[in-house]
Amino acid sequence: MRNSYFPGHKFRTRPETAKQNIFFALFTLVCIFVNFNALGGESAKASKVVSDFQSTLIGVMKVADQIGVVERYKLLQPAIEKSFHLALMTQISASSFWKQATEDEKIQLIKGFRRMSVATLATLFSGYNGEEFVVIDEKPGPYNTTIVYSNLVKLDKSKVSIAYVTKSFKGGWKIIDVILDVGISELKVRQSEYRHILKQSGVQGLISLLNSKADQLMSE
Fold first, then answer.
1. Three-state DSSP class for 58?
2. 166, 80, 176: which is closest to 119 by C-alpha?
3. What is the pLDDT of residues 37-66, one digit of tens each?
4. Of the residues 20, 65, 169, 199, which has the maximum number of CB atoms within 10 A of its CB?
5. CATH code for the domain defined by 15-218
6. Angle of helix 103-124 relative to helix 186-218, nearest 10 degrees?
7. Exposed e or buried b per residue across 164-180, where buried means at least 16 C-beta atoms within 10 angstroms of its C-beta
8. What is the pTM assigned to this prediction?
């Protein structure tokens, strides 16, 4: 397995660091979150959606050296679609350009975002060396979110702290962002990456970029 969700990033190991930065990262996303029909906390604990996803991820990692990236993609796709609110994450990543997109473009954006997201994890988690995920806590976040704190524990007992931002929707709890232990929001990173292409080439340009990145990852 490669070292992180974001290649080249050096992690700290204290989950408290994430807690100090999470609320700032979430604040920039609140206006979009409240437009979705969340129902509160009537379903299962938020940590279950995280632990279920991580269990699938570990299972794929354990057989990763026996199968190719395409097979890993097929194994991960159902779990990612079940665990993450990909439509909301796509909207957040596209920022203000989402409102300018046609309905067909929105559908294509979500499909491209899904392909790129699954392909990224299928590429990054390409082996297993005794790692395990451990959910350590969950706490209420702002605007009816729940933050699930988890550690990726490596064989040498070093840890990578990951905070999953979850929210309860009509279909159950979904992950809507992943924040690393130094406060790096996956969605903020993607917003930053996509801003230039959206300004330069519009929504169609981003759709092409997402699918191109997915194709490139799948060919590795």
1. helix
2. 80
3. 433 443 358 999 999 999 999 999 999 999
4. 169
5. 3.10.450.710
6. 80
7. bbbbbbeeebbbbbbbb
8. 0.80
